[in-house]
Amino acid sequence: MSVQVTTQNAIDMNPDLLIGGQWRAGSRQSRIPVVDPATEAQVGSVSDADVADALAAVDAADVASAAWEATPARERCEILRKCFELIVRDAEALAHIISLENGKALKDARGEVAYAAEFFRWFSEEGVRAKGDLGMAPSGKNHILVQYQPIGISLLVTPWNFPAAMATRKIAPALAAGCTCILKPATATPLTAYAVARILAEAGVPDGVVNVITTSTTGPVVSAILKDPRVRKLSFTGSTEVGRTLLREAAGQVINSSMELGGNAPFLVFEDADLDQAIEGAMVAKMRNGGEACTAANRFLVHRDVAEAFTERLVAAMSALTVGPGVEEATDCGALINPDAVLKVQELVDEAKSVGARVRCGGEAAQRTGFYYPPTVLDQMPVTAKMFHEEIFGPVAPVYVFDTEEEAIQLANDTEYGLVAYLYTQDTGRGLRISAKLEAGMVALNRGLVSDPAAPFGGVKQSGLGREGAQHGMLEFMEMKYIATSWGQ
Ligand code: NAD
Questions:
Q1: Which residue of 112, 189, 237 sits with most ligand 1 atoms within 8 Å of its CB, as the best mutation to test the pocket?
Q2: For labelling alongside 414, which of 5, 288, 302, 403 has CA 20 to 30 A away?
Q3: Contact 329, 106 (CB under 8 A)
Q4: Could you read off the pLDDT tens digit of each residue along the chain, which spans 489 residues?
């Protein structure tokens, strides 16, 4: 079976592993089914790698490494630019495959593909700007020369919620820096990753520079790669829980680690906010990907004076959304990734109700085929509700009320996470003052979206380590070398 959406590129629905430029079956000879969350039907399958396959991928990345590092930056970056162009060419096919295996609405999937492609354009421009530093030692006796070099073989582990963008946000800077890599996409959404890899090969990325493996035994396979002394970088996007486990494993070989982990974003609406703007932003911050985003607004903190007006409008906007299969044009909110996700959201909503929350719309899982949960708004939320502290990862908007600026900041920061915070006020000075006090790696001031390949994306506290995008994203794949030298006065 193949999805033929554009004439240029048919997507392989049953790909094998990609190791050293070869498509090959995993040693286990078994396959992992890929399920469409909208229909619960199997739509494809991928090969199931074991530890031997994982180590073969490290071998391939190692073999390709010296030549890729030695390839002039301009040449590497022209290949990256070509990757951008080909992803744009195949955008429609990629968007369909994302909708099919992830469940998200096509409009979200199209947005994701455009975002995913941009990482290649951005890093094709950054890759030729690798620079160093030159200074003089205070003693005046020698120069201090600082050079950036590729860090080495990189293991990239990605989640299912942005199957294309989370991969390209890592692959593009790794390649721009001169590294080779092994991508381990989420088992639920592997078809997009293989489709992207096929496009990269067509763009001229040499064999072995990008290897892709999928596995049903993630723990042992990832561990084996991290134990291989040739692997020098781990770049992970996923849950904080798995991030902690991988940090412990990476400690074994002291592997440089970048972590993009979970979030619990506050969305602050002050009494002087433009409510039309705030609702528009709220719908983006909450409903991009049906709420399955690390950046999803998880706690609406609204000043008492505007709480009812804001909630009423939010209920109207959420109730107007069309829920359905992601691949249908009319759909605003697709299915969640699997039945466990629906169960988790339902449990969080039921628990909130049991401690006093009121359901303003939605609030009950749909009785239909597919893993659906309806857009839901809860108000009268007590901060003791479990969802105040946990990622909801679904289309549920809980509204909490505050009275003072200090209380708003205290509530916003009352979480172990610190990825992003949203803030609405028409007083820019106040907005900037509060932004400085919010414990988050990113603040959206009168905006519902922060993601931008040209900006440093990442969290503080238990939301992560390091940044992706901007100049910083490439430095995550580079090692600094200091050379002490004297060449006379
Ligand atoms: P997850 O942590 O379950 O899985 C992420 C990846 O890790 C997958 O490839 C998975 O197969 C792998 N994995 C799982 N267990 C592993 C183990 N024991 N050893 C090695 N690898 C393992 O996360 P998910 O459910 O796929 O994604 C949702 C999570 O990702 C949410 O918490 C979300 O906030 C987070 N996320 C963060 C960002 C960010 O940029 N900060 C972006 C997207 C998603």
A1: 237
A2: 288
A3: yes
A4: 445 444 345 799 999 999 999 999 999 989 999 999 999 999 999 999 999 999 999 999 999 999 999 999 999 999 999 999 999 999 999 999 999 999 999 999 999 999 999 999 999 999 999 889 999 999 999 999 999 999 999 999 999 999 999 999 999 999 999 999 999 999 999 999 999 999 999 999 999 999 999 999 999 999 999 999 999 999 999 999 999 999 999 999 999 999 999 999 999 999 999 999 999 999 999 999 999 999 999 999 999 999 999 999 999 999 999 999 999 999 999 999 999 999 999 999 999 999 999 999 999 998 999 999 999 999 999 999 999 999 999 999 999 999 999 999 999 999 999 999 999 999 999 999 999 999 999 999 999 999 999 999 999 999 999 999 999 999 999 999 999 999 865
Residues with catalytic function:
260, 294
Q: Measured in angstroms, how far is the CA atom of residue 219 from the centroid of ligand 1?
A: 12
Token pair 């044009």: residue: 329
Task: Please name the residue that has the structure tokens 């609204």.
Answer: 302
Q: Do the bridges between strand 210-212 and strand 231-237 make them parallel or antiparallel, or are there none, so unpaired?
A: unpaired
Closest by CA position to 73, among listed 148, 139, 19? 148
Estimate the crossing angle of helix 91-102 against helix 106-126, to 10 degrees.
120
Q: Relative to the CA of 238, which ligand 1 atom is closest?
A: 30
Helices 240-251, 218-227: inter-axial angle, 10-degree rounding: 30
Tokens of 104: 């998200």
Long-range Cβ contact pairs of 349-353 (< 8 A, separation 24 or more):
349/376, 349/378, 349/387, 349/396, 351/385, 351/386, 351/387, 352/378, 352/381, 352/385, 352/386, 352/387, 352/398, 353/378
Distance 160 CA to ligand 1 centre (A): 7
Mutate to test the pocket of ligand 1, among 34, 161, 462 (most ligand atoms within 8 A of CB): 161
Q: How far apart are the first and last CA of the chain?
A: 70
Closest residue by Cα to atom 32, ligand 1, is 239
DSSP collapsed to 3 states, 116-183: HHHHHHHHHHHHHHCCCEEEECCCCCCEEEEEEEECCEEEEECCCCCCCHHHHHHHHHHHHHCCCEEE
% helix, strand, coil for the chain, step of 5: 40, 20, 35
Q: Are 117 and 91 in contact (CB under 8 A)?
A: yes
CB-CB contact of 182 with 61 (8 Å): yes
Q: Where are the beta strands (DSSP E) in 315-368?
A: 358-361
Ligand 1: list residues with CB < 6 Å: 157-162, 166, 184, 186-187, 218-219, 222, 237-239, 242, 245-246, 260-263, 294, 391, 419, 459, 464
To the question of pTM greater than 0.90 for the whole model, the response is yes
